[in-house]
Amino acid sequence: MVADAGRNEGGAMKRILHVVTNVAHYDDPTHPTGLWLSELTHAWDIFAAEGHEQHLVSPQGGRSPLEPRALKWPLLDASARAWRDDPARMALLEQTTAPDRIDPAAYDAIYFTGGHGVMWDFPDSDGLQNLTRAIWEQGGVVGAVCHGYCGLLNTRLSDGSLLVAGRHITGFSWREEILAGVSKAMPFNAEAEMVNRGALYQKALLPFVSHVVTDGRLVTGQNPSSAKATAKAVSRLLQG
After folding, report:
1. Do 161 and 152 touch, CB atoms closer than 8 A?
2. 31 catalytically annotated
């Protein structure tokens, strides 16, 4: 099992589990997608600077492909570029761990990254749901940025209730999908599905600007511009 040691109680160092997608394309195989790299790297950099231990998990384990659009200027910022140009870090995305190889008791937080690929493999992953439920119920932090909140859609707690029901949350909005020109290719409307599950969905007045919502130990960011602020909000909870 990965990280089979206990959680770091009372110390500065915490263990954080980043969730990334295995999906490389839309329903149309000629339309590539994958992990939006900066949504991982901004959080990774912030947590690394604080000395936290970090690992990667994906629904199936193995390779996490990268969203091509996120690798172009101006979206490929210094943080994402540094990761892309580091063979050791790129290797981490070739060998992510499967959920059944993870001991949730070893982690203080789970952090769902985005990219459109997650819409196909996050929502119905029993393994991810089990990890999220366990980390939440042991007092850990649950975070998600952009489309990463799709990984929280179907997670139920031990009492059968949905994790997101009655909780304030944000994530990539339907308006942003339309403005990005990809709404017709989406398998579902994530914003609407969150509302259908009883989540108290919120979004910024303007699209594509940073917006973070914290509800207790649940932290969500609306879009790629929210990646740094989302990670900082998670960090504050871990420090607290």
Report:
1. no
2. no
